[in-house]
Amino acid sequence: TSGGRFEAENASISQGVVESNHAGYSGTGFVNYDSASGAYVQWTVSAAAAGPVTLALGYANGTSADRPMDVRVNGALVAGGMSFAGTGAWTTWQTRTLTVNLPAGTSTVRATATTAAGGPNVDYLEVRP
Ligand code: GCU
């Protein structure tokens, strides 16, 4: 499996904007989801062989309210309403992880906001073989 870090600012973004006004992110910025259910960031990753990997999503949520997201791999829901709780500040970045099975070849990983508040600010997706 080809692991590594995939920056949100280089991913496919629907209803979100790349910003860099909250320090501590990796790469050149992060994605500020629009305040809309359905807003998403989608990454393309690849695996040499099928098997389980850990996905880590780097994020910040400076509010005290959860910003849940659905996580889909190749269109299939693998985590519904996954919690992205407040991190204390927009400059405090944390990770949330889940384990998924990837097929061999390229896969899409999409993180979609499920509430009208939109997602948290998302920094990256990391694939950990
Ligand atoms: C603030 C913050 C943004 C964040 C937004 C939100 O405007 O500066 O980075 O995305 O709140 O609530 O989503």
TrEMBL record:
Domain CBM6: 4-128
Similarity comment: family membership: Belongs to the glycosyl hydrolase 20 family.
Protein name: beta-N-acetylhexosaminidase
Organism: Sphaerisporangium corydalis
Full protein stretch here: 565 to 693 of 693
